[in-house]
Amino acid sequence: MGSDGSIILAFDLYGTLLSTESIAKELKNQFGAEKAATIAVTWRKYQLEYTWRLNSMNQYLPFSTITQRSLHHAIAENNLELQSRTAASLMSAYDCLSTFPDVAPALQSLAKQPSITPVIFSNGTREMVSNSVNQSPDLSPYSGIFKNIVTVEEVQKFKPHPDVYYHLAAKVGKTREQMGDMWLISGNPFDIVGAKAAGINSVWVDRGAGGWADGLIEGEMGRPDLVVHGLVQLVEAIEAGKISTQSTRI
Fold first, then answer.
1. Handedness of CA 121, 125, 21, 47 (dihedral sign)
2. Which letter does DSSP use for residue 139 in this model?
3. Are residues 23 and 87 in contact, defined by beta-carbon separation less than 8 angstroms?
4. pLDDT for 184-240, tens place per residue?
5. How far apart are CA 106 and CA 233, in angstroms?
6. SS3 at position 202
7. Secondary structure, 3-state, 52-111
8. In terms of DSSP H, where are the helices of the chain?
C-alpha cells in the first residue's frame, strides 16, 4: 500500500468522521436532556485525558477500557449513578455514533479519486474501530472506501506519541524518510501537532470555524498545513492539487 505513488489520507475516527457528541442522544434516554450534553462533553474530556496520562506514565490500557472508565468518571462528576446495564447500553451505542453531515458526500467523492488511498487511523482498539466502521448506520455504507484500519494496539501508545505515527507509516508501507507522503485528516488539534512533529502533513477539520488556537509549538511546525471547515473542502483541495506526496513536491 502506498508504493504506487498514491496519496495516503489517514482519517482520524472519533471527532473527525464520527461525532462523539452524538452519544448525547443515548445519554438523553438514560439521564434526561438537561444532563446529556454535559455528560457527553465530560466523557470525551476524560477519555482523552486518560490517554495522555497513560502516555506520560508509560502505561497502556485498551481504549475500550479507557472509554468505559471515563464514562464512570463523567457520571460521578455529575453526581449520578450508573447501573451496569446502562453502562453496557452506552458502550454499545458508542459503536453506532453518527457521522458529521459533511462526511458522506466527501467519502462519495473520494471513492472516485484513483490517486487517493484512504485509511482509518485511530486510538481505538481494532474491535471498537471495526465495529464503528461496519455498524454505524451513517459510516458503514462507505466502509469499503478505507483500504486499511490502523490502530495503536500494537504500539501500546496513544496519539500524540510519535511511535503511533511511525506505526501508521509502517502499516501503509512508508519509511520514516517518507512521512511526508502521508496526510493526517483530523478534527483534534493535539493529533495535528503530533503528526506534524513526526513529519506527517496535516489537515485540520475546523467545523466550528473558530480558527487555530493551539499554542504549544510556535511557528509552522505547530500549525496544520491546511485548514478546512468540512471534508467537502478537503475533496476540493485534492482536486485543486493542494494535497500531494512528498516526492511530487520535490
1. negative
2. T
3. no
4. 999 999 999 999 999 999 999 999 999 999 999 999 999 999 999 999 999 999 999
5. 8
6. strand
7. HHHHHHCCCCCHHHHHHHHHHHHHHHCCCCCCHHHHHHHHHHHHHCCECCCHHHHHHHHC
8. 24-31, 33-57, 63-77, 84-93, 103-110, 126-135, 162-171, 189-197, 231-239, 246-249
- Residue-level length of the chain: 250
Predicted TM-score (pTM) above 0.85: yes
Instruction: Inform me whether the pLDDT recorded for 248 exceeds 60.
Output: no
CA distances to 18, 189, 195, 205 from 100, in Å: 6, 17, 22, 11
Cell numbers 502516555 correspond to what residue?
Answer: 55
Q: Is the dihedral of CA 137, 143, 146, 149 positive or negative?
A: positive
**How high is the pLDDT of residue 98?**
92
Contacts of residue 79, defined as CB under 8 A and 6 or more positions apart, other chains included, come to: none
Residue 14 three-state SS? strand
Tens-digit pLDDT profile for residues 57-81? 999 999 999 999 999 999 999 999 9
What's the pLDDT tens digit per position in 111-170?
A: 999 889 999 999 999 999 999 999 889 999 999 999 999 999 999 999 999 999 999 999
